[in-house]
Amino acid sequence: MLSEHRPTRRSILKAVGGIAAATALGGASILAGASSAGAAEDGSGLRVKEHNEDDPRMWYYRFQTDAIGWDIGPAVNVLLPDDYHTSGRTYPVLYLFHGGAEDFRSWDRTMEGGIRAYTAGQPLIVVMPDGGAAGWYSNPVSSNVGPRNWETFHIDQLIPWIEANFRTYAEQEGRAVGGFSMGGFGALKYAAKYPDRFASVSAHSGPPSLRGDLGAVAHWANLSSAAKDLAGGTIYGEPWDEAKVSADNPMEHLETYRDKRVFLVAGTSPDPTDPFGWGNETEVLRGQREFKGALDGAGIHYEAYEDGGGHWVRPDRARQDIEGIVDRLRKA
């Protein structure tokens, strides 16, 4: 464990942040070396197993944690602003989640340059963690493969680790959460369960209702997690753990979205090429329409779009979302 008298990565970053552009490359080298010290426990419950900080913007870490029983461990990409190494500024953070059958690299592989292009020139840190092929951003009711407690990893471990190691605002007004598909559900869920953590929430083709259409999304969470992640275990149990379903269901926590920025996108037609079973994007669309109607009824403001096409990330909406996040959060 690091001595409390040794400098933390965050203190090193703050010190390096003020150096001139002429010595920025040397500073980046210092930071890369500092991550070896960061491999020790820092109170977050995470231990860095691997890291790569060679890219000026996209830094990679893989962790060991008791929350996730993978031998390889869960990973995260941290996308830094263009001027992070030279500005000395503190930045807001977007926690951005991938969809089912994807991983922490997915947002870097989407259309038209991916997340690097969507955030070019924006004063925003983007944190993109693993969430399991079908982890549903939850601690499952049962698992036959050891712990897969994604909610614990993201909320109790990753956020504190990021805030200890990067120049971020450790407050609600400094954090946004968003995602695609399963990750959009995870974003809506976390914003509702932890309302003091995030000031903005975005769901790109993300379902907001677990109980709609006779519980279609909750059933799909159980089926997909049993097949892909938990070797027959389930997120919500069979029969359902009704208290857990209610706790995780965005539709049952409308008031938590009041005064937040809420951004929703859904396609209006099926996508027959989707390999993960969301061929009918209209299921997401129905859920988002139900959610919007409930928000309207409660007098809660949101921003929502329905675009032609199926179940995929729309680059123009992703850029629009990023701009809205930067505008809503505390400024760098």
TrEMBL record:
The keyword Metal-binding does not apply. This is Acyl-CoA:diacylglycerol acyltransferase. The lineage of its organism: Bacteria, Bacillati, Actinomycetota, Actinomycetes, Kitasatosporales. GO terms for molecular function: diacylglycerol O-acyltransferase activity; trehalose O-mycolyltransferase activity. Belongs to the mycobacterial A85 antigen family. InterPro entries: AB_hydrolase_fold, Esterase-like, Mycobacterial_A85_antigen, TAT_signal. It catalyses: an acyl-CoA + a 1,2-diacyl-sn-glycerol = a triacyl-sn-glycerol + CoA; 2 alpha,alpha'-trehalose 6-mycolate = alpha,alpha'-trehalose 6,6'-bismycolate + alpha,alpha-trehalose. It comes from Streptomyces chattanoogensis. Its EC number is 2.3.1.122, 2.3.1.20. It holds the Pfam family Esterase. Keywords: Acyltransferase, Transferase.
